[in-house]
Design a protein that fits this description.
By secondary structure, this protein is an alpha/beta fold. It is 61% helix and 14% strand. It is built from five helices and five strands. The protein has helices at residues 2-59, 89-103, 117-125, 143-158, 211-290; strands at 73-79, 109-115, 129-134, 164-174, 177-186. Strands 3-2-1-4-5 form a five-stranded mixed β-sheet, sandwiched between helices. The radius of gyration is 30 Å and the shape is elongated. The protein starts with a helix and ends with a helix.
């Protein structure tokens, strides 16, 4: 019985050691990628902020946005993970979706563009309308794909299909913290300090194109930079959540490993003690028989 228990504990310890190595490698791998995605996201933010200023300057003289004041047809871009092992990352996004749906008009037509199969499954369970699904890992989505997505959004805005656009994503804050949220990216423009157009800068807005065409060009560039930065922040947030989950898993594995090693040591000691007692008892019996 003792030998069988020790054998089982040895197998368990070997398995835990293997699991610990895998978890540790995953944790270090995700940690090494965090900085790169954060820097790329910040670069995208700088880009769309510049475009936003030009768009706001142009919008001072023209009416911005179609379907102004109405929200009959709403597009919602939902960014989730395509993989597990990232704790409550997707759960927090789902909570924001539920919160957003309670704030929108109940009779509005809501159409979802979903990134990640986790989000697709959730919306299917809620019987929401999904018009596009991107089932690629977040880190595999590049600027070209973000541009294609934005171009399609602009086409639907111009055709009148979408009155407003929302994005539900996870904002990366730091290496140990992120926050799921939803934000309206069209037709509302965020408040930003815009420099007054002086004589020196007035030529910046001199274009041959019609004003409405220029507006949509700037809008497309702005939304592309904005959406791409949100995707990159979501990637960084996913890696952040996965690193935290792997760290917790590593600590849990270490605790179980220590318990198993201590139990095996105790079992071996009990086995050795039992064998010693058997030897002593046997020797005593033989001695008594001789006497």
């Amino acid at each position: 019985m003792g030998a069988g228990l020790i054998q089982e504990l040895t197998k368990k310890i070997n398995a835990l050691n293997t699991t610990k190595k895998i978890v540790r490698v995953t944790e270090l791998s995700t940690l090494s990628k965090l900085g790169g995605y954060r820097q790329r996201a910040e670069s995208a933010v700088a880009y769309y902020t510049t475009i936003l200023k030009s768009l706001q300057q142009l919008s001072n003289t023209i009416s911005f946005g179609a379907g102004e004041g109405t929200e009959e047809n709403i597009a919602i871009l939902m960014v989730t993970s395509n993989r597990g092992l990232c704790g409550a990352y997707n759960l927090e996004v789902f909570k924001q979706i539920d919160k957003l749906l309670t704030t929108l008009p109940t009779d509005a037509n809501k159409e979802f563009i979903v990134i990640g199969n986790q989000g697709q499954r959730y919306l299917e369970r809620k019987e929401q309308t999904i018009i596009q699904t991107i089932n690629e890992p977040l880190e595999a989505i590049n600027l070209e794909q973000a541009t294609i997505l934005t171009t399609e959004l602009i086409r639907n805005i111009r055709s009148g299909r979408f009155d407003s656009i929302y994005v539900v994503f996870t904002q990366y804050l730091n290496a140990v913290q992120s926050q799921a949220q939803f934000t309206k990216i069209y037709p509302d423009l965020p408040e930003a300090e815009v420099a007054t157009v002086t004589d020196e800068l007035s030529g910046v807005l001199d274009f041959e194109e019609q004003d409405d065409e220029l507006e949509y060009q700037l809008l497309e560039n702005y939304l592309c930079g904005l959406i791409y930065s949100m995707l990159l922040y979501s990637v960084a947030s996913e890696y952040c959540a996965r690193r935290i989950a792997m760290k917790a898993a590593n600590e849990n594995t270490s605790e179980r490993l220590d318990e198993s090693i201590a139990l095996r040591k105790k079992s071996r000691l009990q086995q050795a003690t039992g064998e010693l007692i058997d030897i002593i008892t046997g020797a005593q019996i033989i001695k008594e028989e001789k006497e």
